[in-house]
Amino acid sequence: MSKEVLEVQCPHCKEQNNINLSKEIKCKSCEKSLTTKKYTKKALISSTTALLIGIGGGIYLDEKFETDRYPLKAEYNIVQSCVSQDSRTLSRKDYLEKIDICICAQEKTIKDISYGDFKDSRVLFLNKFESNVLKCM
User: Fold this and answer.
1) How far apart are CA 32 and CA 5, in angstroms?
2) Neighbours of 82 (CB within 10 A)
3) DSSP state of 9
4) DSSP secondary structure string for all residues of 20-50
5) Which residues have C-beta within 8 Å of that of residue 13, sequence separation ≥ 6?
6) How far from chain centre, in Å, is Cα 126?
7) What is the pLDDT of residues 2-26, one digit of tens each?
8) To 10 degrees, the CA torsion angle through 19, 25, 31, 37?
């Protein structure tokens, strides 16, 4: 009689068991029978695969949400040109109010005009920006 040994994890206590297939099969740890259960091999992905999926998903989501984000330098230049459009001297209060209006207009415009559209048509951006300045006043 050949003695085959099978390694099985007990579903009750998770102990690894080397079992001789020629006799009744019980868990060596908890002594419960292993013959009444159906055992299926579960497919698990490796940690490397999970890591690669996570990195790929992160890059995809980052690109998806940040594609139309204006570079910080562009946003700064837009606000600066809006604020300094007027050559007259402003009081601090008026200056800060003007900054708030320009930032408000920029936020509204960025929601409507993607950075790609901004690069393609500055006129479209400027028209929308000017109308948003009036809304923010």
Assistant:
1) 18
2) 19
3) E
4) ETTS--B-TTT--BSTTS---PPP---HHHH
5) 27, 29, 30
6) 31
7) 456 777 788 888 888 877 665 666 7
8) 110
Which residues, at least 6 apart from 98, have a Cβ–Cβ distance to it below 8 Å?
Answer: 82, 83, 86, 90
| CB count in 10 Å sphere of residue 100 | 12
Task: Report the C-alpha gap between 63 and 66 in whole angstroms.
Answer: 5
How many angstroms separate the CA atoms of 112 and 128, rounded?
A: 8
What is the arithmetic mean of pLDDT over 66-74? 75
d(CA 130, CA 137): 11
Query: Per-residue pLDDT tens for 40-62?
Result: 555 556 667 766 777 777 766 66
Alpha helices of the chain — where are they, by DSSP H? Answer: 47-66, 72-83, 92-112, 115-120, 122-136
Cα 50 from Cα 75, distance rounded (Å): 37
Q: Which run of H or E residues covers position 16?
A: strand 16-20
